[in-house]
Every structure is written in C-alpha cells, then in structure tokens.
Specification:
One of its GO terms (biological process) is cytosine catabolic process. The protein has 449 residues and is of the alpha/beta class. It contains 13 helices and 20 strands. It is 32% helix and 23% strand.
Amino acid sequence: MQAAAHDGGYVLVFCFPHATKPAMDLILRHANLPDGRRDIDIGIRDGRIVAVETALAATAAEEIDASGRLVSPPFVDAHFHLDSALSLGLPRLNRSGTLLEGIALWGELKPDLTREAIARRALDYCDMAVAQGLLAIRSHVDICDDRLLAVDALLEVRRQVAPYLDLQLVAFPQDGLLRSATAQDNLARALDRGVDVVGGIPHFERTMADGAESVRILCELAAARGLLVDMHCDESDDPHSRHIETLAAQSQRLGLHGRVAGSHLTSMHSMDNYYVSKLLPLIAESGVAAIANPLINITLQGRHDTYPKRRGMTRVPELLAAGVDVAFGHDCVMDPWYSFGSADMLEVAHMGIHVAQMTSQEAIRQAFDAVTTNAARILHLDGYGLAVGCRANLVVLQAADPFEAIRLKATRLYVLRGGRVIARSPARLSELDLPGRPARVTLQSGHGA
C-alpha cells in the first residue's frame, strides 16, 4: 500500500504486486457523478468501464479515492480552430476586435504559414487541452489555401495525438465556397486526404442566394460521401441572415437527421420572435444541432451597436426548450479573433451561463452537458460516457458537482484515458494566517480545511 499527499491529506493508492491478479485494473472510489449520484465506485478493466455501483466489492491493481469529488466523462470542444490557435500577434493584433478584421488578418498570415509551425502550435494546444481534461476536439481547418498546408499539418497532428485525444477535422472554406475560386476543389481534396466533416460559411458568400446555394452544394456532398456537416452559419448581427433555415431544410430533404450542426447562429439574437417561433420547430424537426461559442460570440458580436447593445450569442435556452441538441465550443484561443483562452471548457460553460442567463440549477446542468455529453453526441463519439461498456476516459475534478465545477472552474486532479492516468494536478489550496480562522481554504463551499 502506498500513500500519496493530496489536498492537505492523503489519497490511498493500493497496489498488489504479488497477489492473485486483481479483478480490475483501476477502481475510482467514492465518486460523485454529474447526474447527482453520490459515493459511487467506478471499476475499470482493459480500458473500459466494467462497473458503476455503490461499495464495489472487487480488488484492483490501483485505487484512487475521489473522496466525494465529481468524476465526469472528459470535456468535449464541439467547435475550435486548431490551425490558428496560439498565433496571437501574427502578423499583428486585431485592433477593432471584429470578426471581419480577424478574417483579414488570417488572410494576411496565410502566405507565411508553414506546415511545421501550424503543427507545433497545434500540438502545444493539445497538451494544454489534455491538462484541462479536454480529450475530444472538433477543429475546423481552412482549405482556401491551395497548398492545403493546414490540412496536412492537422492530419499529422491527428495521427500523433490519437492515443490520447480524439481530433475531428472539418473542411472549412474560410473565404467562402463560391466566393473563393478554388474552394470547391480544395474542399474535395481535403476530404480525399481524410478530413472528417464537411464545413461551410454561407453568410460570408457575396449574396444571400450564393449562401443558400453553398449550403445545398455542401449538404449534397456530405450526403453523397456519408459524412457529417458542421457549418459556420449566420455568424452575424443581421437578422436577415437566415441560412440556418436553409441548412435545416436541406438536412430534412437529404435525410441527414442527426448528422448536421449549425455553429454560431448569432443572427438569431436579432431576429423577431414571430420568425423564431417558426424557425425553432424547423431546426428541431430536421435534427440539426446548434453549437454556440459563448466566449467569442460575446466578444465579436454587437460591435456596431452603441446602446442598447446586443449580447451576441444565439438563443440557447429557447433551442434547448425546443428539443435541439446544443453544445458550447471554445472556438479560438490566442489567435486573430480572440486574445484569451486556456483550453478550459468550464470557462466556456461559465460564460455561456452568464450570457444566456442560465442561472437555474437545471440550466447550469445543461451548460455542463453542453461541454460534455451534448457535444459528444454531436461529434458522434464512440463509447463516451459513464455507463458500463464505455471507454474509461474520465476526469476527477476538485468539486462536488457540476455547479461547483463551473463556479470554481475546478482543478482537474486526474485525467484518465483508457483507464490510465495521463495528467494530474495538485489540488488548489491556499494557506491562511488569520486568527481564529481555518489554516487552509480550497474555495469549495463548506470545504475549508
């Protein structure tokens, strides 16, 4: 038996080197689960969850005592741009803070990009992600550079990180499928090389009609190839940007239910309620999912407003109430569009709660789902979750429940992939020197030590 210091006390890690082979490889003891169950043991064997129950009567080669902390499946980022991540300041900073200046900056940078630099930054970001318990990312990759440098770089990154992170790539025509002369050919080439998902950006085409036509072309391409679809859709303050309607209609026409996502959908924050009352059932009926990006939406949108100033994010509570799958994405970290970020999906959920005023306990749980289970479902991740048979990809958080995890943006004490600990962090703990007060504080309510 070994004892390891943890959170001012000890976590017992049991080893049985000479005994009969234990029934399991690892048991997490005394865990709280996101659905409210408490004091649950999770048994793991051969990289899979084989037991989820109270007082599991089994031995294991290793045991970790969660001590009433939250154990969750890993975080999932449903919308990101890995090719531009960590490029802040290249070639210069975004002075206006607008979406369009960010696109212009990326266009200036593209001629100077190298495959090696893209891959290096992407791998650095994946390291950050693992440390944060983020083990699945859907990344859009710009295909409007005829060299397809970013595509080749991220395909190689996907290969390298596969043992510890699920990376799904979207062929993204940043400059517009029809607006860019070579985009259609480049997109097909990217898919032929192994990119997973068909992307688009209809609101950036030259006309509304071109935008609608691009949606039709891309959805038909996805249907023909049997691929998923994820389009940047209506990332605008213009209430007349209504390409989500076309995306839903094409999904319905082509039988793509459950395979299509509309990302951003920010024009919905400016649409009149009567039109939205028609639009929401259409989205739900078509099986199109919605991916909001709270950190970026609140930063980039509403830039032309004085006051009243629009919030920028799509109608998350209304979409959820209509039965639409909703996930949150980080979108950007330290790039031409956003200077901040640290691969922390709890920060994303935290902002989403504030922007959408999702302050009820039920809504807070929905925000947690938006960066875990909902996002995993939209990405069609295999074996994700906490049920018996699921892959033993787990995060132990320094929090008792999802509310506390989001409130504190809780430390990831352990990150497991296939039942193996691949990252660990010391508990957050402050030592105080105050007369008559606790010597240690963890910021958890009722958890002063």
